[in-house]
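A further point concerns the way the authors explain their paired sequence and structure data. Showing the layout once, in full, would remove most of the difficulty. For illustration, here is how one protein appears when written out as sequence plus structure tokens:
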Amino acid sequence: MKGQEWYQEDEVAESYEQKRFSRGGRLIDRREKKAVLDAIEPVEDRDILEIACGTGRFTVMLAERGANIVGLDISGPMLQQGREKARSAGVTDHLEFLRGDAGRLPFPDDHFDVVFAMRFFHLADTPETFLTEMARVSNDQVFFDTFNAFSSRSAYNWLLPMGSRLYDDEEVRELIDDAGLSLGDSAHDFVLPYGLYRKIPDWLADPLREVDSSVIDREIGRRLASVSYWNTSVRR
């Protein structure tokens, strides 16, 4: 897994959200949370597992909506940030944070109603193993995102400290099929790179997003989207 040691650093965990989801990055946070909710709502009383939950951005959000959720991550410091966030939100009775390996999930088959992962597969060295494990412990739905090969991210991927695994549409569909999943639908977002939004203030991010959205709604925009969301179900 790329970045495994990097994510273990206390200072990385403590500054993770500030660096990525402040300023114009707040727009990215809102869009990603909307993508999750659009895919898996209603969540109340459903048993949900989040893979690579990090600081608990999605875990706590879903617990606040009544989900019974487990957040799993390999980084102790990131999980500590999540626990503090859960305590502040008053939802510790609806969630549990566990440290563990997404390639060997410590749960029986068909244990959760929903299993999802955000910002995970771009770091995966063996994506087929992780997706198969996600499918194994879900009795219904698996949702995840990927960064795309034919996007603006490919132009600067080599500059990033860990790089990213970028996927084309055919590769993802093969992974889904090989994991015993059926693709329900997919959605695509952000022609402009994430890094651009993070470097601009809020007041500029929203009008820039309008331009981005006008392109993403066209066929060429979907082909150049930075991120894709994949909503799948377990084959019976």
